[in-house]
């Protein structure tokens, strides 16, 4: 059953948290900070990969190597085999190896907890950094992936041409207290309802707010009447 949350007179559809993070909203669990390194590596590997694939890859990787030092000094070919099914395996293996080495040597095996330090790591952009800050450090940030960027523009909350501008636009639109839930909300919503192609507009609880802003398939329009 869907839960509708009001924020700045707009509605967000809360379906379920992103399965990759396995987080449910509520009181922050300090255990998440202990898993910051795993969250970081998983998010790097999740690029262009389905969540279920990423979870399997990370589980397999952790069975063999599970610390920054272990991944940093693991043979590259071993890492490539372990992350192969996540796609672009050579590049990802290099990135997690280099990132692990930096965390081991420069941060004493502790994942940094600031955006400025995180984005310096190989394979870490604003989205990955904000995911780590959100999940592991309980920071009020908005990770903007393809779902968040697409839906925010589709329903008219922002009118932007890149994720960073979308992030800034959403920060102005929504109260800071709701920032942490936006990514989880829209990722699930984008997979189940507001899909890139043929969105299920007739099932959308906020369809009346975006009917004039998106091109809806004829069948969906009839269903909404």
TrEMBL record:
<dbReference type="InterPro" id="IPR003651">
    <property type="entry name" value="Endonuclease3_FeS-loop_motif"/>
</dbReference>
<dbReference type="Pfam" id="PF00730">
    <property type="entry name" value="HhH-GPD"/>
</dbReference>
<keyword id="KW-0408">Iron</keyword>
<keyword id="KW-0479">Metal-binding</keyword>
<protein>
    <recommendedName>
        <fullName>Endonuclease III</fullName>
        <ecNumber>4.2.99.18</ecNumber>
    </recommendedName>
</protein>
<dbReference type="InterPro" id="IPR011257">
    <property type="entry name" value="DNA_glycosylase"/>
</dbReference>
<keyword id="KW-0234">DNA repair</keyword>
<keyword id="KW-0378">Hydrolase</keyword>
<comment type="function">
    <text>DNA repair enzyme that has both DNA N-glycosylase activity and AP-lyase activity. The DNA N-glycosylase activity releases various damaged pyrimidines from DNA by cleaving the N-glycosidic bond, leaving an AP (apurinic/apyrimidinic) site. The AP-lyase activity cleaves the phosphodiester bond 3' to the AP site by a beta-elimination, leaving a 3'-terminal unsaturated sugar and a product with a terminal 5'-phosphate.</text>
</comment>
<dbReference type="GO" id="GO:0006289">
    <property type="term" value="P:nucleotide-excision repair"/>
</dbReference>
<dbReference type="GO" id="GO:0051539">
    <property type="term" value="F:4 iron, 4 sulfur cluster binding"/>
</dbReference>
<dbReference type="InterPro" id="IPR005759">
    <property type="entry name" value="Nth"/>
</dbReference>
<dbReference type="InterPro" id="IPR004035">
    <property type="entry name" value="Endouclease-III_FeS-bd_BS"/>
</dbReference>
<dbReference type="InterPro" id="IPR023170">
    <property type="entry name" value="HhH_base_excis_C"/>
</dbReference>
<keyword id="KW-0255">Endonuclease</keyword>
<keyword id="KW-0540">Nuclease</keyword>
<keyword id="KW-0456">Lyase</keyword>
<dbReference type="InterPro" id="IPR003265">
    <property type="entry name" value="HhH-GPD_domain"/>
</dbReference>
<dbReference type="GO" id="GO:0140078">
    <property type="term" value="F:class I DNA-(apurinic or apyrimidinic site) endonuclease activity"/>
</dbReference>
<keyword id="KW-0411">Iron-sulfur</keyword>
<dbReference type="GO" id="GO:0003677">
    <property type="term" value="F:DNA binding"/>
</dbReference>
<dbReference type="Pfam" id="PF00633">
    <property type="entry name" value="HHH"/>
</dbReference>
<dbReference type="GO" id="GO:0141016">
    <property type="term" value="F:G/T mismatch-specific thymine-DNA glycosylase activity"/>
</dbReference>
<keyword id="KW-0326">Glycosidase</keyword>
<dbReference type="GO" id="GO:0046872">
    <property type="term" value="F:metal ion binding"/>
</dbReference>
<dbReference type="GO" id="GO:0006285">
    <property type="term" value="P:base-excision repair, AP site formation"/>
</dbReference>
<keyword id="KW-0004">4Fe-4S</keyword>
<dbReference type="InterPro" id="IPR004036">
    <property type="entry name" value="Endonuclease-III-like_CS2"/>
</dbReference>
<keyword id="KW-0238">DNA-binding</keyword>
<dbReference type="InterPro" id="IPR000445">
    <property type="entry name" value="HhH_motif"/>
</dbReference>
<dbReference type="GO" id="GO:0000703">
    <property type="term" value="F:oxidized pyrimidine nucleobase lesion DNA N-glycosylase activity"/>
</dbReference>
<comment type="similarity">
    <text>Belongs to the Nth/MutY family.</text>
</comment>
<keyword id="KW-0227">DNA damage</keyword>
């Amino acid at each position: 059953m869907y839960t509708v949350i009001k924020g700045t007179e707009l509605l967000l559809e809360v379906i379920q948290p992103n399965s990759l993070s396995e987080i449910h909203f509520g009181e922050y669990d300090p255990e998440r900070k202990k898993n910051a390194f795993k969250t970081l590596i998983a998010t790097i590997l999740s690029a262009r990969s389905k969540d279920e694939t990423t979870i399997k890859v990370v589980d397999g990787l952790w069975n063999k190597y599970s610390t920054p030092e272990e991944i940093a000094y693991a043979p590259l070919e071993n890492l490539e085999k372990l992350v192969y099914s996540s796609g672009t395996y050579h590049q990802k293996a290099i990135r997690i190896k280099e990132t692990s080495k930096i965390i081991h040597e420069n941060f004493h095996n502790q994942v940094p907890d600031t955006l400025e330090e995180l984005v310096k790591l190989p394979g870490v952009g604003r989205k990955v950094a904000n995911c780590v800050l959100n999940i592991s450090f309980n920071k009020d940030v908005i990770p903007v992936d393809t779902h968040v960027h697409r839906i925010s523009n589709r329903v008219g909350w922002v009118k932007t041409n890149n994720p960073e501008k979308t992030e800034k636009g959403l920060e102005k639109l929504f109260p800071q207290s709701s920032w942490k839930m936006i990514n989880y909300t829209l990722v699930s919503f984008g997979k189940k309802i507001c899909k890139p192609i043929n969105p299920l507009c007739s099932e959308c609880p906020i369809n009346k707010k975006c009917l004039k802003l998106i091109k809806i398939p004829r069948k969906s329009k009839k269903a909404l009447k």
